[in-house]
Amino acid sequence: MSPRPLDYESLNENVKKVAYAVRGELYLRASELQKEGKKIIFTNVGNPHALGQKPLTFPRQVVALCQAPFLLDDPNVGLLFPADAIARAKHYLSMTSGGLGAYSDSRGLPGIRKEVADFIERRDGYPSDPELIFLTDGASKGVMQMLNTIIRNEKDGILVPVPQYPLYSATISLYGGSLVPYYLEEEANWGLDFYNIRQSVAVARSKGITVRAMVIINPGNPTGQCLSEANIRELLKFCFQENLVLLADEVYQQNIYQDERPFISARKILFDMGPPISKEVQLVSFHTVSKGYWGECGQRGGYFEMTNLPPQTVDEIYKVASVSLSPNVPGQIFLGLMVNPPKPGDISHLKFVVESKAVLESLRRRAHIMTDGFNSCRNVVCNFTEGAMYSFPQICLPPKAIEAAKKVGKAPDVFYCLKLLEATGISTVPGSGFGQKEGVFHLRTTILPAEEEMPAIMASFKKFNDEFMEQYEDCRGYSRM
Ligand code: DCS
Question: Coiled-coil ranges per the record (predicted)?
Protein backbone atom coordinates (compact mmCIF):
# COMPACT_ATOMS: atom_id res chain seq x y z
CA MET A 1 0.00 0.00 0.00
CA SER A 2 1.34 3.45 -0.79
CA PRO A 3 2.04 5.72 2.19
CA ARG A 4 -0.92 7.71 3.45
CA PRO A 5 -0.68 11.53 3.20
CA LEU A 6 0.35 12.05 6.81
CA ASP A 7 2.72 9.10 7.05
CA TYR A 8 6.22 10.38 7.68
CA GLU A 9 7.62 9.48 4.27
CA SER A 10 4.96 11.45 2.43
CA LEU A 11 5.17 14.67 4.43
CA ASN A 12 6.14 18.03 2.94
CA GLU A 13 9.95 17.84 2.80
CA ASN A 14 10.23 21.46 3.91
CA VAL A 15 8.55 20.56 7.20
CA LYS A 16 11.07 17.80 7.80
CA LYS A 17 13.97 20.15 7.09
CA VAL A 18 12.97 22.61 9.81
CA ALA A 19 15.37 22.67 12.77
CA TYR A 20 14.68 24.66 15.94
CA ALA A 21 17.33 24.12 18.58
CA VAL A 22 15.81 26.33 21.28
CA ARG A 23 13.38 23.48 21.93
CA GLY A 24 15.68 20.73 20.56
CA GLU A 25 17.63 17.77 21.97
CA LEU A 26 18.89 19.60 25.04
CA TYR A 27 15.45 20.85 25.96
CA LEU A 28 13.93 17.39 25.53
CA ARG A 29 16.60 15.81 27.74
CA ALA A 30 16.11 18.55 30.33
CA SER A 31 12.37 17.87 30.37
CA GLU A 32 13.05 14.14 30.87
CA LEU A 33 15.43 14.82 33.76
CA GLN A 34 12.87 17.14 35.32
CA LYS A 35 10.27 14.37 35.18
CA GLU A 36 12.77 12.12 36.96
CA GLY A 37 12.89 14.70 39.75
CA LYS A 38 16.11 16.60 38.93
CA LYS A 39 16.07 20.35 39.50
CA ILE A 40 16.47 21.99 36.10
CA ILE A 41 17.36 25.62 35.49
CA PHE A 42 15.71 26.34 32.16
CA THR A 43 17.97 28.92 30.60
CA ASN A 44 17.30 27.70 27.08
CA VAL A 45 14.40 30.02 26.30
CA GLY A 46 14.07 33.77 26.77
CA ASN A 47 10.89 33.34 28.80
CA PRO A 48 11.26 35.75 31.75
CA HIS A 49 8.07 34.96 33.66
CA ALA A 50 8.92 31.24 33.62
CA LEU A 51 12.03 32.15 35.61
CA GLY A 52 10.20 34.20 38.18
CA GLN A 53 9.89 37.69 36.67
CA LYS A 54 6.73 39.28 38.02
CA PRO A 55 4.26 40.91 35.61
CA LEU A 56 3.98 44.69 35.70
CA THR A 57 0.88 45.66 37.68
CA PHE A 58 -0.78 48.28 35.48
CA PRO A 59 -1.09 46.27 32.24
CA ARG A 60 -2.46 43.27 34.11
CA GLN A 61 -5.05 45.47 35.84
CA VAL A 62 -6.20 46.88 32.53
CA VAL A 63 -6.37 43.52 30.80
CA ALA A 64 -8.12 41.95 33.83
CA LEU A 65 -10.84 44.58 33.55
CA CYS A 66 -11.10 44.07 29.79
CA GLN A 67 -11.43 40.33 30.30
CA ALA A 68 -14.06 40.76 33.03
CA PRO A 69 -15.95 43.88 31.95
CA PHE A 70 -18.74 43.18 34.49
CA LEU A 71 -16.25 44.34 37.14
CA LEU A 72 -16.53 47.80 35.64
CA ASP A 73 -20.21 47.85 36.70
CA ASP A 74 -19.38 46.83 40.26
CA PRO A 75 -19.75 49.80 42.63
CA ASN A 76 -16.56 48.66 44.41
CA VAL A 77 -14.38 48.59 41.31
CA GLY A 78 -12.68 51.83 42.40
CA LEU A 79 -11.51 50.12 45.61
CA LEU A 80 -9.79 47.36 43.69
CA PHE A 81 -8.42 49.16 40.63
CA PRO A 82 -6.83 52.58 40.16
CA ALA A 83 -8.85 55.08 38.16
CA ASP A 84 -6.35 55.21 35.28
CA ALA A 85 -6.54 51.42 34.84
CA ILE A 86 -10.33 51.63 34.80
CA ALA A 87 -10.25 54.47 32.27
CA ARG A 88 -7.79 52.62 30.07
CA ALA A 89 -9.84 49.41 30.15
CA LYS A 90 -12.89 51.38 29.02
CA HIS A 91 -10.79 53.03 26.32
CA TYR A 92 -9.71 49.67 24.89
CA LEU A 93 -13.13 48.06 25.23
CA SER A 94 -14.65 50.95 23.30
CA MET A 95 -12.27 50.14 20.41
CA THR A 96 -13.58 46.58 20.11
CA SER A 97 -16.83 45.44 18.63
CA GLY A 98 -17.90 43.14 21.44
CA GLY A 99 -14.94 43.06 23.82
CA LEU A 100 -12.05 40.62 23.86
CA GLY A 101 -14.22 37.78 22.64
CA ALA A 102 -14.70 39.33 19.23
CA TYR A 103 -12.33 39.07 16.27
CA SER A 104 -10.68 42.35 15.43
CA ASP A 105 -9.68 43.61 11.99
CA SER A 106 -7.02 41.25 10.62
CA ARG A 107 -4.43 44.02 10.90
CA GLY A 108 -5.37 44.63 14.54
CA LEU A 109 -7.57 47.24 16.24
CA PRO A 110 -7.18 50.61 14.46
CA GLY A 111 -6.95 52.47 17.79
CA ILE A 112 -4.01 50.36 18.94
CA ARG A 113 -2.28 50.65 15.57
CA LYS A 114 -2.55 54.41 16.07
CA GLU A 115 -0.97 54.09 19.55
CA VAL A 116 1.88 52.10 17.97
CA ALA A 117 2.33 54.77 15.27
CA ASP A 118 2.49 57.50 17.96
CA PHE A 119 5.09 55.48 19.87
CA ILE A 120 7.22 55.06 16.75
CA GLU A 121 6.97 58.78 16.02
CA ARG A 122 8.04 59.69 19.58
CA ARG A 123 10.90 57.19 19.41
CA ASP A 124 12.26 58.11 15.96
CA GLY A 125 11.18 61.70 15.45
CA TYR A 126 9.46 60.86 12.17
CA PRO A 127 5.72 60.33 11.71
CA SER A 128 4.44 56.82 11.26
CA ASP A 129 1.30 55.72 9.41
CA PRO A 130 -1.01 53.29 11.30
CA GLU A 131 -2.09 51.88 7.92
CA LEU A 132 1.42 50.46 7.55
CA ILE A 133 1.41 48.80 10.98
CA PHE A 134 -0.03 45.30 11.39
CA LEU A 135 -0.50 43.70 14.80
CA THR A 136 0.56 40.07 15.16
CA ASP A 137 0.58 37.17 17.63
CA GLY A 138 4.10 37.89 18.87
CA ALA A 139 6.84 39.02 16.48
CA SER A 140 7.25 35.45 15.19
CA LYS A 141 4.05 35.49 13.16
CA GLY A 142 5.02 38.77 11.52
CA VAL A 143 8.47 37.48 10.59
CA MET A 144 6.92 34.35 9.15
CA GLN A 145 4.40 36.32 7.15
CA MET A 146 7.02 38.61 5.67
CA LEU A 147 9.34 35.74 4.74
CA ASN A 148 6.41 33.96 3.14
CA THR A 149 5.68 37.08 1.11
CA ILE A 150 9.29 37.43 -0.04
CA ILE A 151 10.29 33.82 -0.81
CA ARG A 152 9.09 32.61 -4.21
CA ASN A 153 11.25 29.49 -4.60
CA GLU A 154 14.56 27.92 -3.55
CA LYS A 155 16.50 30.40 -5.68
CA ASP A 156 15.43 33.29 -3.46
CA GLY A 157 18.07 34.01 -0.83
CA ILE A 158 17.73 35.72 2.55
CA LEU A 159 20.87 37.07 4.21
CA VAL A 160 20.77 35.96 7.82
CA PRO A 161 23.36 36.67 10.52
CA VAL A 162 25.28 33.73 11.89
CA PRO A 163 24.86 33.15 14.78
CA GLN A 164 21.11 33.84 14.40
CA TYR A 165 17.90 33.16 16.23
CA PRO A 166 16.62 29.99 14.49
CA LEU A 167 13.17 31.42 13.74
CA TYR A 168 14.88 32.68 10.58
CA SER A 169 16.59 29.48 9.45
CA ALA A 170 13.51 27.43 10.34
CA THR A 171 11.07 29.68 8.48
CA ILE A 172 13.29 29.94 5.41
CA SER A 173 13.38 26.11 5.31
CA LEU A 174 9.63 25.92 5.80
CA TYR A 175 8.90 28.24 2.90
CA GLY A 176 11.52 26.62 0.69
CA GLY A 177 13.91 29.57 0.31
CA SER A 178 17.70 29.68 0.63
CA LEU A 179 19.48 30.98 3.70
CA VAL A 180 22.52 33.04 2.78
CA PRO A 181 24.68 33.26 5.92
CA TYR A 182 26.78 36.27 6.90
CA TYR A 183 29.09 35.83 9.85
CA LEU A 184 29.13 38.26 12.74
CA GLU A 185 32.60 39.09 13.98
CA GLU A 186 33.05 37.70 17.48
CA GLU A 187 36.37 39.51 17.98
CA ALA A 188 34.69 42.81 17.04
CA ASN A 189 31.96 42.28 19.62
CA TRP A 190 29.74 40.53 17.09
CA GLY A 191 29.71 43.51 14.72
CA LEU A 192 29.01 43.46 10.97
CA ASP A 193 31.85 43.09 8.50
CA PHE A 194 30.75 44.34 5.09
CA TYR A 195 33.66 42.75 3.27
CA ASN A 196 32.41 39.37 4.47
CA ILE A 197 28.79 40.25 3.76
CA ARG A 198 29.67 41.14 0.15
CA GLN A 199 31.57 37.85 -0.16
CA SER A 200 28.51 35.93 1.07
CA VAL A 201 26.34 37.65 -1.52
CA ALA A 202 28.88 36.93 -4.28
CA VAL A 203 29.04 33.25 -3.34
CA ALA A 204 25.24 32.99 -3.31
CA ARG A 205 24.95 34.70 -6.69
CA SER A 206 27.54 32.38 -8.19
CA LYS A 207 25.13 29.55 -7.28
CA GLY A 208 22.27 31.26 -9.10
CA ILE A 209 20.59 32.61 -5.99
CA THR A 210 18.79 35.96 -6.07
CA VAL A 211 19.50 37.62 -2.74
CA ARG A 212 16.31 39.51 -1.87
CA ALA A 213 16.33 40.33 1.80
CA MET A 214 18.61 40.88 4.74
CA VAL A 215 17.82 40.18 8.38
CA ILE A 216 19.35 42.06 11.29
CA ILE A 217 18.69 41.28 14.92
CA ASN A 218 19.46 44.36 17.01
CA PRO A 219 20.16 43.94 19.91
CA GLY A 220 21.40 40.50 18.93
CA ASN A 221 20.12 37.08 19.77
CA PRO A 222 22.08 34.98 20.72
CA THR A 223 25.03 37.35 20.54
CA GLY A 224 23.83 40.25 22.72
CA GLN A 225 25.52 43.06 20.76
CA CYS A 226 24.02 46.51 20.11
CA LEU A 227 24.78 47.67 16.59
CA SER A 228 26.39 51.07 16.24
CA GLU A 229 24.73 53.82 14.26
CA ALA A 230 27.60 53.69 11.76
CA ASN A 231 27.06 49.95 11.23
CA ILE A 232 23.34 50.44 10.56
CA ARG A 233 24.01 53.31 8.15
CA GLU A 234 26.38 51.18 6.19
CA LEU A 235 23.87 48.37 6.25
CA LEU A 236 21.15 50.58 4.78
CA LYS A 237 23.52 51.79 2.09
CA PHE A 238 24.31 48.17 1.33
CA CYS A 239 20.61 47.27 1.07
CA PHE A 240 20.12 50.22 -1.28
CA GLN A 241 23.03 49.20 -3.53
CA GLU A 242 22.04 45.54 -3.58
CA ASN A 243 18.26 46.08 -3.77
CA LEU A 244 17.45 44.18 -0.58
CA VAL A 245 14.50 44.57 1.75
CA LEU A 246 15.77 44.95 5.30
CA LEU A 247 13.98 42.91 7.96
CA ALA A 248 14.90 44.63 11.23
CA ASP A 249 14.19 42.42 14.22
CA GLU A 250 14.19 44.92 17.07
CA VAL A 251 12.35 42.90 19.68
CA TYR A 252 15.04 43.58 22.32
CA GLN A 253 15.00 47.36 21.97
CA GLN A 254 14.19 47.88 25.68
CA ASN A 255 16.92 45.45 26.79
CA ILE A 256 20.03 47.63 26.79
CA TYR A 257 22.75 47.17 29.45
CA GLN A 258 25.37 49.79 28.53
CA ASP A 259 25.20 53.50 27.80
CA GLU A 260 27.66 53.87 24.90
CA ARG A 261 25.36 52.43 22.27
CA PRO A 262 21.71 53.15 23.00
CA PHE A 263 19.15 51.47 20.78
CA ILE A 264 18.51 53.35 17.54
CA SER A 265 15.95 51.91 15.16
CA ALA A 266 16.91 51.11 11.59
CA ARG A 267 13.90 53.22 10.60
CA LYS A 268 15.22 56.36 12.29
CA ILE A 269 18.60 56.00 10.63
CA LEU A 270 16.92 55.34 7.28
CA PHE A 271 15.01 58.63 7.53
CA ASP A 272 18.08 60.47 8.89
CA MET A 273 19.92 59.46 5.72
CA GLY A 274 17.47 61.30 3.48
CA PRO A 275 16.72 60.58 -0.18
CA PRO A 276 17.29 58.59 -2.26
CA ILE A 277 17.92 55.92 0.41
CA SER A 278 15.08 57.02 2.72
CA LYS A 279 12.62 56.84 -0.17
CA GLU A 280 13.88 53.67 -1.78
CA VAL A 281 14.99 51.10 0.76
CA GLN A 282 12.18 48.79 1.79
CA LEU A 283 12.19 48.09 5.50
CA VAL A 284 10.03 45.97 7.76
CA SER A 285 10.60 46.37 11.52
CA PHE A 286 9.37 43.95 14.21
CA HIS A 287 8.58 44.39 17.88
CA THR A 288 6.88 42.37 20.62
CA VAL A 289 5.50 42.35 24.17
CA SER A 290 7.52 39.19 24.93
CA LYS A 291 10.79 40.93 25.77
CA GLY A 292 12.00 44.07 27.50
CA TYR A 293 10.79 44.56 31.07
CA TRP A 294 7.39 43.27 29.99
CA GLY A 295 8.42 39.70 29.20
CA GLU A 296 4.79 38.85 28.42
CA CYS A 297 5.73 35.93 26.14
CA GLY A 298 2.52 34.02 26.72
CA GLN A 299 0.29 36.91 25.69
CA ARG A 300 1.47 36.78 22.06
CA GLY A 301 1.40 40.45 21.16
CA GLY A 302 3.58 42.08 18.49
CA TYR A 303 3.60 44.25 15.41
CA PHE A 304 5.45 44.93 12.20
CA GLU A 305 5.76 48.27 10.49
CA MET A 306 6.39 48.58 6.76
CA THR A 307 8.35 51.42 5.19
CA ASN A 308 8.50 52.11 1.43
CA LEU A 309 6.22 49.22 0.50
CA PRO A 310 3.74 50.08 -2.27
CA PRO A 311 0.00 50.00 -1.43
CA GLN A 312 -0.63 46.97 -3.66
CA THR A 313 1.87 44.93 -1.66
CA VAL A 314 0.35 46.11 1.63
CA ASP A 315 -3.04 44.97 0.30
CA GLU A 316 -1.67 41.52 -0.47
CA ILE A 317 -0.18 41.27 3.01
CA TYR A 318 -3.54 42.34 4.46
CA LYS A 319 -5.31 39.72 2.36
CA VAL A 320 -3.06 36.94 3.65
CA ALA A 321 -3.37 38.20 7.25
CA SER A 322 -7.16 38.03 6.75
CA VAL A 323 -6.95 34.29 6.19
CA SER A 324 -6.10 33.98 9.91
CA LEU A 325 -8.99 36.34 10.70
CA SER A 326 -7.56 38.24 13.64
CA PRO A 327 -4.47 38.53 15.81
CA ASN A 328 -5.32 37.65 19.40
CA VAL A 329 -7.04 40.61 20.99
CA PRO A 330 -5.68 40.48 24.58
CA GLY A 331 -2.18 40.43 23.03
CA GLN A 332 -3.08 43.59 21.12
CA ILE A 333 -4.08 45.31 24.34
CA PHE A 334 -0.77 44.40 25.96
CA LEU A 335 0.92 45.91 22.95
CA GLY A 336 -1.15 49.10 23.25
CA LEU A 337 -0.15 49.33 26.90
CA MET A 338 3.51 48.72 26.11
CA VAL A 339 3.67 51.50 23.55
CA ASN A 340 1.50 53.81 25.65
CA PRO A 341 2.39 53.20 29.31
CA PRO A 342 1.23 55.42 32.21
CA LYS A 343 2.49 58.99 31.82
CA PRO A 344 3.95 61.34 34.43
CA GLY A 345 1.04 62.59 36.52
CA ASP A 346 -1.05 59.42 36.03
CA ILE A 347 -1.96 57.59 39.24
CA SER A 348 -0.10 54.44 38.17
CA HIS A 349 2.96 56.17 36.72
CA LEU A 350 5.28 55.94 39.71
CA LYS A 351 4.55 52.30 40.41
CA PHE A 352 5.02 51.47 36.74
CA VAL A 353 8.39 53.22 36.62
CA VAL A 354 9.58 51.59 39.84
CA GLU A 355 8.60 48.13 38.64
CA SER A 356 10.04 48.45 35.15
CA LYS A 357 13.30 50.03 36.33
CA ALA A 358 13.78 47.27 38.89
CA VAL A 359 13.52 44.60 36.17
CA LEU A 360 15.86 46.40 33.80
CA GLU A 361 18.48 47.27 36.42
CA SER A 362 18.52 43.72 37.70
CA LEU A 363 18.96 42.42 34.14
CA ARG A 364 21.91 44.76 33.72
CA ARG A 365 23.54 43.41 36.89
CA ARG A 366 22.83 39.84 35.80
CA ALA A 367 24.43 40.52 32.40
CA HIS A 368 27.62 41.50 34.24
CA ILE A 369 27.53 38.56 36.66
CA MET A 370 27.18 36.13 33.77
CA THR A 371 29.82 37.57 31.49
CA ASP A 372 32.30 37.87 34.35
CA GLY A 373 31.44 34.36 35.50
CA PHE A 374 32.07 32.86 32.08
CA ASN A 375 35.29 34.79 31.59
CA SER A 376 36.62 33.40 34.89
CA CYS A 377 36.33 29.83 33.55
CA ARG A 378 39.04 27.79 31.95
CA ASN A 379 38.93 27.88 28.12
CA VAL A 380 35.85 30.08 28.02
CA VAL A 381 35.71 33.58 26.50
CA CYS A 382 32.62 35.70 26.38
CA ASN A 383 31.66 39.11 25.00
CA PHE A 384 29.65 41.30 27.34
CA THR A 385 25.89 41.12 26.90
CA GLU A 386 25.29 44.71 25.76
CA GLY A 387 21.63 44.04 25.12
CA ALA A 388 18.91 41.36 24.67
CA MET A 389 18.67 38.46 27.13
CA TYR A 390 21.47 36.07 26.38
CA SER A 391 25.07 35.23 27.02
CA PHE A 392 26.92 33.38 24.26
CA PRO A 393 30.29 32.25 25.55
CA GLN A 394 32.81 30.53 23.32
CA ILE A 395 33.89 27.20 24.74
CA CYS A 396 37.33 26.22 23.49
CA LEU A 397 36.91 22.46 23.45
CA PRO A 398 40.10 20.42 23.61
CA PRO A 399 40.69 17.87 20.80
CA LYS A 400 40.14 14.99 23.20
CA ALA A 401 36.65 16.27 24.03
CA ILE A 402 35.89 16.61 20.33
CA GLU A 403 37.00 13.01 19.80
CA ALA A 404 34.90 11.82 22.74
CA ALA A 405 31.87 13.58 21.25
CA LYS A 406 32.44 11.94 17.86
CA LYS A 407 32.61 8.53 19.51
CA VAL A 408 29.09 8.93 20.88
CA GLY A 409 27.80 10.48 17.65
CA LYS A 410 27.23 13.98 19.03
CA ALA A 411 28.31 17.40 17.82
CA PRO A 412 31.04 18.61 20.23
CA ASP A 413 28.98 21.49 21.63
CA VAL A 414 25.93 19.24 22.09
CA PHE A 415 28.18 16.79 23.97
CA TYR A 416 29.42 19.57 26.25
CA CYS A 417 25.94 20.99 26.89
CA LEU A 418 24.51 17.54 27.66
CA LYS A 419 27.28 16.90 30.19
CA LEU A 420 26.64 20.33 31.70
CA LEU A 421 22.94 19.55 31.98
CA GLU A 422 23.50 16.15 33.61
CA ALA A 423 26.05 17.54 36.07
CA THR A 424 24.38 20.80 37.07
CA GLY A 425 20.78 20.89 35.79
CA ILE A 426 21.60 24.00 33.72
CA SER A 427 19.71 23.67 30.44
CA THR A 428 21.42 25.65 27.65
CA VAL A 429 21.34 25.56 23.85
CA PRO A 430 24.46 24.44 21.94
CA GLY A 431 25.92 27.08 19.65
CA SER A 432 25.36 24.88 16.60
CA GLY A 433 21.62 25.59 16.96
CA PHE A 434 22.32 29.22 16.01
CA GLY A 435 25.20 28.61 13.59
CA GLN A 436 28.85 29.28 14.32
CA LYS A 437 32.11 29.24 12.40
CA GLU A 438 33.51 25.80 11.60
CA GLY A 439 35.49 24.34 14.52
CA VAL A 440 34.39 27.05 16.99
CA PHE A 441 31.99 26.13 19.79
CA HIS A 442 29.56 28.09 21.93
CA LEU A 443 26.56 27.71 24.12
CA ARG A 444 23.71 30.08 24.73
CA THR A 445 22.16 30.76 28.09
CA THR A 446 19.65 33.42 29.04
CA ILE A 447 20.58 35.95 31.70
CA LEU A 448 17.13 35.45 33.23
CA PRO A 449 17.57 33.27 36.34
CA ALA A 450 16.75 35.18 39.54
CA GLU A 451 19.56 37.52 40.51
CA GLU A 452 20.00 35.93 43.94
CA GLU A 453 20.48 32.50 42.34
CA MET A 454 22.98 33.74 39.80
CA PRO A 455 26.21 33.42 41.84
CA ALA A 456 25.41 29.79 42.71
CA ILE A 457 24.55 28.99 39.08
CA MET A 458 27.81 30.49 37.86
CA ALA A 459 29.79 28.67 40.55
CA SER A 460 28.19 25.40 39.55
CA PHE A 461 28.95 26.13 35.88
CA LYS A 462 32.57 26.93 36.69
CA LYS A 463 33.03 23.77 38.71
CA PHE A 464 31.62 21.64 35.89
CA ASN A 465 33.57 23.43 33.16
CA ASP A 466 36.91 23.42 34.88
CA GLU A 467 36.59 19.71 35.73
CA PHE A 468 35.54 18.97 32.15
CA MET A 469 38.60 20.80 30.82
CA GLU A 470 40.82 19.02 33.33
CA GLN A 471 39.47 15.70 32.12
CA TYR A 472 39.87 16.35 28.39
CA GLU A 473 42.61 18.87 28.03
CA ASP A 474 45.94 17.91 26.49
CA CYS A 475 48.61 20.19 27.86
CA ARG A 476 50.12 20.68 24.40
CA GLY A 477 48.83 21.66 21.01
CA TYR A 478 45.88 23.71 22.14
CA SER A 479 45.37 27.38 22.73
CA ARG A 480 42.65 29.84 23.65
CA MET A 481 41.00 32.01 21.02
N1 DCS B 1 12.94 37.65 17.26
C2 DCS B 1 13.92 37.33 18.10
C3 DCS B 1 15.30 37.82 17.83
C4 DCS B 1 13.65 36.55 19.21
O5 DCS B 1 14.64 36.24 20.03
C6 DCS B 1 12.34 36.10 19.44
C7 DCS B 1 12.00 35.19 20.58
C8 DCS B 1 11.34 36.48 18.53
C9 DCS B 1 11.68 37.25 17.44
C10 DCS B 1 9.91 36.07 18.65
O11 DCS B 1 9.31 36.38 19.83
P12 DCS B 1 7.73 36.52 19.99
O13 DCS B 1 7.09 35.74 18.89
O14 DCS B 1 7.44 35.97 21.34
O15 DCS B 1 7.45 37.96 19.87
N16 DCS B 1 13.09 34.59 21.22
C17 DCS B 1 13.11 33.20 21.57
C18 DCS B 1 14.40 32.79 22.14
O19 DCS B 1 15.47 32.81 21.58
N20 DCS B 1 14.19 32.37 23.34
O21 DCS B 1 12.89 32.51 23.70
C22 DCS B 1 12.12 32.83 22.59
Answer: none
